[in-house]
Amino acid sequence: SDPLLRVENVSKTFRTRGKKLRAVQNVSFTLEAGKTLGIVGESGSGKSTLGRMVLRLLESDKGKIVFDGVDLTELKKNKLRALRQDMQIIFQDPRASLNPTMTVRDAIEDAMAIHEIGTKASRRERVVELLERVGLPYEVQFAYPHELSGGQLQRVGIARALSLNPKLIVCDEPVSALDVSIQVQVIQLLRDLQKEFNLAYIFISHNLAVVEYLSDEVAVLYLGEVVEQAPADELFKKPTHPYTRVLLNSILKIPDSPENRQTMVSIQGEVPSPLNPPSGCAFHPRCSFATDACKTVKPERKKVSEHHIAACHLVQ
Ligand code: SF4
Ligand code: MG
Question: Among 243, 296, 314, which residue has the most ligand 1 atoms within 8 Å of its CB, making it the best to mutate?
Fold first, then answer.
């Protein structure tokens, strides 16, 4: 059967002050209903741009995005609204996406009203149910955003997304701003809700450890390009691209064996500016394995195994 979401060769270039910024380049993936694709990369790697393009909150320059059998890139703007209900987003800073003058109840009810779901009375009932489901006390519905903690607000954001019965939620760094103990709770909540409602997630994070718990598949982005993509267990057991290994080492996930120690790499330097990406392999200035060829020849994405790809000259 067709996947819920198919993204093919999607690219986006921004023009800023006469310069080209290639934010996302030729990214492809598929996502099945009820599954999670983790997208990992440092800031400026194009993760959020990619997430927004999937929802068509931002237009892609080229490529195809097919959601539930509909090619979004071909869809007229006025046809988007019905689909918007099926595709929701939760942000790192839920405060920014909540109207400060609206109570929690009104904010969630309003989202449902825009999509003409139920009556005012039934929507209010649903708000109460949803808040309970995401672990918030009854009284929170009467609160304003400034009266709530970051963790509570994120739960409100989740409840609001759920109120529209979506099939896909783009989670853009949803726990990055929260305390670690709260992060774990929110991630567990997202996982429980996924099972209960058969939700598909695109889970965006700079932190591989956060992504590991939820993801079925992981794509690692570096300067707008997927440098490695694999089923999550394979990526964590057999990271192949030197950048992925750097990310994994930084969370101490690689078992300490002589073989792994030999392949340990340390991160060097800052992320290069996407306005002026390095030649050849964009990772070469930071890569412990870089050869002269890496400075001039851009590595193609190659198969490491059937569902595992990496873009590095070391992959034969
Ligand atoms: Fe490192 Fe070369 Fe592989 Fe790029 S292609 S990741 S520089 S070894
Ligand atoms: Mg971002």
Answer: 314
